């Protein structure tokens, strides 16, 4: 038996004000998208903004439904729309933030497992690392420089695809 150590890097910022203008703009658009989310059951509104390699920014927000789990997360709404509208443009950055009507969110919001898998797939499809910028309503910001940090050994990995494509 052998053991391997896998390491990853996440950049942490005390607040949005420490970010460059491009990342602040993406978070601002994600926040705006969150304010329009359809979340009548959880009252937890999530927004996502995706910057494509052509410079276009596409936003999405969570869409709840009484027939749970028929709703969809903000990240997937944004990525699916971006790919349907700009299929030749790769996502290069995605910002996620949330608004709670019950209590302010002071910790960064991370994507769910389903969203992580979709994000990993689009990173692979685009052939470029996907930076992920995560923030709550306030407080620190986390940035990963690839989906491999958030989802190592995803179904988009060549090693796994080798076995499932047989």
Question: How would you describe the overall organization of this protein?
Answer:
By secondary structure, the protein is α+β, with helices and mostly antiparallel strands. The protein has a single domain (10-164), classed as Cytidine Deaminase, domain 2 (3-Layer(aba) Sandwich), CATH 3.40.140. Helix content is 31%, strand content 22%. It contains 5 helices and 6 strands; from the N terminus they run βαββαβαββαα. Strands 1-6-5-4-2-3 form a 6-stranded mixed sheet. The chain is globular, with a radius of gyration of 16 Å. The protein starts with 9 loop residues before the first strand and ends with a helix. The model has no long low-confidence stretch (mean pLDDT 92).
Summary, kept brief:
This protein is an alpha+beta fold and 166 residues long.
State the share of residues found in helices, binned by percent.
25-40%
- Tally of domains: 1
The CATH superfamily name is: Cytidine Deaminase, domain 2
Overall CATH class: Alpha Beta
The total beta strand count reads 6
User: What is the topology, as strand order, of the major beta sheet?
Assistant: 1-6-5-4-2-3
Major beta sheet summary = 6 strands, mixed
End-to-end distance: 27 Å
**H/E series:** EHEEHEHEEHH
Rg from Cα:
16 Å
The portion of residues forming beta strands comes to: 15-25%
**Poorly predicted spans:** none
What is the fold-level CATH name, i.e. the topology? Cytidine Deaminase, domain 2
What is the average per-residue confidence, as pLDDT, rounded to a whole number?
Answer: 92
Number of helices: 5
Q: Based on Cα principal axes, name the global outline.
A: globular
Structural class: alpha+beta
In the CATH hierarchy, the architecture is: 3-Layer(aba) Sandwich
């Amino acid at each position: 038996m052998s053991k391997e150590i896998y390491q990853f890097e996440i950049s942490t910022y005390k607040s949005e004000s420490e970010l460059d203008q491009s990342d602040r703009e993406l978070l601002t658009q994600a926040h705006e998208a969150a304010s329009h989310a359809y979340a009548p059951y959880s009252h937890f509104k999530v927004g996502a903004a995706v910057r494509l390699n052509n410079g276009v920014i596409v936003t999405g927000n969570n869409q709840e439904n009484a027939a749970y789990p028929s709703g969809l997360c903000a990240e997937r709404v944004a990525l699916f729309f971006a790919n349907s509208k700009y299929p030749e443009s790769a996502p290069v950055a995605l910002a996620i933030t949330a608004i709670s009507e019950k209590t302010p969110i002071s910790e960064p919001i991370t994507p769910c497992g389903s969203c992580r898998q979709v994000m990993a797939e689009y990173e692979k499809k685009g052939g470029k690392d996907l930076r992920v910028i995560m923030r709550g309503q306030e407080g620190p910001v986390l940035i990963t420089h690839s989906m491999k940090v958030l989802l190592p050994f995803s179904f988009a990995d060549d090693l796994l695809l080798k076995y499932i494509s047989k």
